[in-house]
Amino acid sequence: MHPIEKLEEEIKYLHCNPTISKQGLSDAETKELYNSFWNIHVKSVIEYSKQMAKKYNANLDVVWLGALLHDIARLEDLEPHDEIGSEKAYNLLIEKGFDRNLAEKVKNVVLKHRCRKYPPETLEEKIIASADAMAHFLPPFYLWIVKYSTNDFPEFMERNSRKIDRDYHEKIFFDEEREMIEEQYSALKKWFDFKIK
Predict the structure, then answer these.
(1) Would you give the distance in Å from CA 90 to the centre of its chain?
(2) What CATH number does residue 81 fall under?
């Protein structure tokens, strides 16, 4: 088995068997939340990322590991998950015997995937940021979010309207990939901006 495939199985296991309980949720609800997060979000980011790595001739190992570990800090509910996750990803890769240079590149990918404080610069960093944003446009993602949201409904709608705008316009760095999800963006925009007249 390829070392990244082995690590992917370990990270999947952690999502299916979380070691902490999310505040306000039972152990069973926490397990369902993280299992769904793996299936709805992380797997999609991995798939989109690997497709783009091949398409744009990026370093597949950096992209695959970056996609796999981009939200690793969320398993412990830690924020800012990009900054904390980048350190966790680096340390995990070193512990698992991966090359330091590779681990450093993955660390930067995880750090920059949100495009907030640290904007992506390399091709691999832009691929993970784009894949993360694209995965937010899959229909189950917002059904999953609303299930676990603690925001009141109007705040939820407004916040996610801003989120999809930012994801679509600022986090997808490739025209073809933006076109790929344009229809979902338009549909979600109508949904989040809906007003009763």
Answers:
(1) 17
(2) 1.10.3210.10
